[in-house]
Amino acid sequence: MPPLSLGMGILFRRAASFVPAGVAVLSGADVTMTVSSLHCASFDPCLVSVALAQDSQKGAAIIKGGWFRARLLRIGEEGLSRGEGHPTNLGLVELECTIGWTHPAGDHYLVLAEVGGVTISEVYPIVYWRRGLHEFYPNYRFMASRGAFEKFVAAWEACTLPKKQWNHAAHVAIGAYYAVRYPATAFQRTKDGILRYNEAVGIANTETSGYHETLTRFWASILAKLVERIADPWEAACTAVEKLGEDRDLHHLYYGFDVVRDTQARRIWIAPDLESADRWRRLQGTGRTVMARK
Length: 294
Hints:
10 helices; eight-stranded antiparallel sheet; alpha+beta
């Protein structure tokens, strides 16, 4: 146990550096400042929280101004965190926020703000960890090389792939690979493969578990559109995993109900129901930036 003479404050400050956090630039009231304390506080209503040091003049200006724009930094924007240069692209996430509540919290103010505008971009973040900035990239071992991917596909098709390795990114990779290699039968091959694999690893295909018709068709369409101009199945898988390997909640943009748990949607195809018809035709498979404002 560390010696008590170090003091709890020093120990806690050191411990806090072990907690990974996103890096955001706040702008408002003619000032900009970098923070690692931006968090989502509520989905309904849409609220974010941020901790600003009480002795920060920039923080005081933003609080007094009553609003701020938060830009979550993407890879390649390390300079913006130091006030260097100007953004040339959209941030990973950009939020337009109106401050609704400020509360003293020790040597900081805890600020709660309502989100009135959202912009999302399809890139990877910078992460603040151990007082340094780090580029974050998901690690997909099955995508490490063409050979590794071919072994992964063969193992999945033979139902010998360990259950823990069949995740969202793996599903995306298979869907994109089939879309290019077997364009006329990609969906049916994916469906048959999922049903067969589930049975092999002990996942029951019922009205409440296992294979999901709507989500499988949804993703088959998204992936087919995304890779329609790619000729190499391996390159298609790489593209799909890079863009959509962690996009587990994409269906929320198209469905206004809990499509994952809906028993009818699990049995049969249910078309998107949110603004959907237009959004489905315009955006399916592109992974484009989504913007929303109140």
